[in-house]
Amino acid sequence: MNEGINQIFGEIIRIDSVNTYLVKVPSESSFELGLGEFVGVDSGDGMVVCVIKGVQRSIPEELATLISFEQELKYLPYNTDFKSSYYIVFGLGVLSDNTKYRIRIAPQIRAPVKRLNKETIRKFHLKDNKPNISYFNQYRETLGDCTLLAISDELMLMLPEASNMLLIVKKYIGGSGKL
């Protein structure tokens, strides 16, 4: 469980919309995040709280077909960019003095993306000291049920006081019900 400080995870290399960003994580990164885990990035309004929506890893076709892994070290010593991971992250809202579950200002290209700690995740999901996942309905179609189920699993660890609510939500999502 992530309880420490917010660690740098990667940097934004593409912004597709005010909510959707592509984050490059170097191959030498010391940790790897999974679907439904939370990250954050600063914007003009405050910290945008995001969730991992997907990952992309690929080797350019021209390299994959022409060179074996053993030869890679000999012939491509300076080209390690293809080993990086690219994460699709989706902004859920802005954590500032007044948490908002919408985003008006997208972060900048090359902005550092941080892995969020438990305290930050709790702060975003507690409104008046009560669990709040109002973004589930708003972004259900965009995020998809698999991502929402993964978020629910993460939140059960971070917000044990919301476990009964999250179990009901998981039941409805798993049964294709409406929240």
Walk me through this protein's architecture.
The protein is of the alpha+beta class and 179 residues long. It has a domain of 122 residues: Elongation Factor Tu (Ef-tu), domain 3 (Beta Barrel). It has 5 helices and 8 strands; from the N terminus they run E-E-E-E-H-H-E-E-H-E-E-H-H. It has a 6-stranded antiparallel β-barrel. Strands 7-8 form a two-stranded antiparallel sheet. A hairpin with a 4-residue loop joins strand 1 and strand 2.
List the helices and strands and how they pair.
Blueprint: E1 7-15, E2 20-25, E3 38-43, E4 46-56, H1 61-66, H2 69-75, E5 85-95, E6 112-115, H3 118-125, E7 126-127, E8 130-131, H4 135-158, H5 163-174
Antiparallel strand pairs: 1-2, 1-6, 2-5, 3-4, 3-6, 4-5, 7-8
CATH topology of the domain at 7-128: Elongation Factor Tu (Ef-tu), domain 3
Strand content: 25-35%
Helix-strand topology string: EEEEHHEEHEEHH
> Strand sequence of the main sheet, in spatial order?
1-2-5-4-3-6
Cα end-to-end separation: 28 Å
Q: At CATH's second level, what is the architecture of the domain at 7-128?
A: Beta Barrel
Helix content: 25-40%
CATH class of the domain at 7-128: Mainly Beta
Question: What is the mean predicted local confidence, pLDDT?
Answer: 84
**Rg of Cα set:** 18 Å
Number of strands: 8
- Broad structural category: alpha+beta
Please state the oligomeric state of the protein chains shown.
Answer: single chain
- Overall, the morphology is globular
Number of helices: 5
Poorly predicted tracts of residues: none
Outline the biggest β-sheet: 6 strands, antiparallel, barrel
